[in-house]
Amino acid sequence: MTSDRRSSVECTMGDCTSISAPSSRRSCRSSRAPSSTRVNERLRRRAALLDRDGTIIVDAHYLADPDHVALLPGAAEAIRLLSNAGIPSVVCSNQSGIARGLVSLAQYRAVRLRVAELLRSEGAELLDTFICPHHPDYDGPCPCRKPSILLFEQAAAMHGLDLHRSLFVGDKYRDVEPAAHYHASGFLIRGPETPEEDVTRATTASAPVVTSLLDAAKQFLDGSSLRRSAPSVGVPHDLPQERVP
């Protein structure tokens, strides 16, 4: 692969930042850990860390046309319910179509805006979006492709999130696996594109397998209510926009 090809997909903050992200030319390849401002740990909040395709919208495989965006049933309601409970939703998504040359950054942004528009039309809104635009077969290994945790760490640093008390949801096990790292809640959506191997891995890891984001959100919120009402003695503590690293 030529250097020109690499530079076309390398994730620099200046190329791919959202309207609220600070501009930086540092590539994620040279970043060992996300830069962050100091956040009082007691002020950190929970969040829902969500995959996009197959979780919020129909997985159309390397979606480049905003006219083909379709929300999955109940997705907007789930995000709305979480928001009403004080839990913002953040998308953390692998978008290897960019590395493959199948989706340009301009096309990706047009799709992202359409997703946000459809969610807003149903009273739901995302706090932020972080993506990995790489694929190891095209531009080598990177620290941001899930199940690696860099996207989540950046989201936490940017928005003061407590990942240990957060919700992780997706239709692939790689979306759910980071929950184990943080001893957090992870739910696997069993959808049309979910490999049976992923269902087995989730079951083995005691991650609930659900049919939709709405199902995951309701179970998570119900569990949170139970934990709040339970005695505190002996209970462990750790029980819209766009960002590319």
Quick overview of this protein structure:
This protein is α/β, with parallel strands linked by helices and 245 residues long.
Question: Mind explaining what this structure looks like?
Answer:
The chain is of the alpha/beta class and 245 residues long. The chain has a single domain (43-229), classed as Rossmann fold, CATH 3.40.50. It has helices spanning 3-9, 13-16, 75-84, 105-121, 136-139, 150-159, 173-182, 196-204, 213-229; strands at 48-50, 89-94, 128-132, 167-170, 185-189, 209-210. The chain has a 6-stranded parallel sheet, sandwiched between helices. α8 links the parallel β5 and β6 (209-210). The protein is globular.
Secondary-structure element order, N to C: HHEHEHEHHEHEHEH
Strand percent estimate: 5-15%
- Give a short account of the largest sheet: 6 strands, parallel
| Name of the CATH superfamily | HAD superfamily/HAD-like
- Counting helices, strands and paired strands, the structural category is alpha/beta
Helix count, per DSSP?
A: 9
Shape: globular
User: What is the CATH fold-level name?
Assistant: Rossmann fold
Q: What count of domains describes the coordinates?
A: 1
